[in-house]
Amino acid sequence: MDHPQQPERTINSRRFPRYELETELRVGILGPEHREMRGRSLNINEGGMGGIFVAGWDVGTSVALQFSVPIATTPIKVKGVVRNQTGYRYGFEFTELTPEERETITRTCKTLDLLQ
To answer: What's the pTM?
Structure first.
């Protein structure tokens, strides 16, 4: 019985390509334990972004992200969740993006693709 070939996904394969983006990244937790920390972004893609922080959050924590992009004059504020953490590096997945937020992030990635 022939099975159609499925592309193999490796451990390092990603849904979206990453683009370098170095800017201030503010991450906050809402609620009674509200705290906001400032760090630096490392990269962005259409699904999320990475950053460096001296202290942080547990994987699975819902957060509010704020960062600047080269195509907008005001910082972007979006919801996200901590998906991974290694040392001081944190990976955030965007959640509940509005169509406008998704469009801004997509345009940012296309612009960074041209610049890199």
So the answer is: 0.84
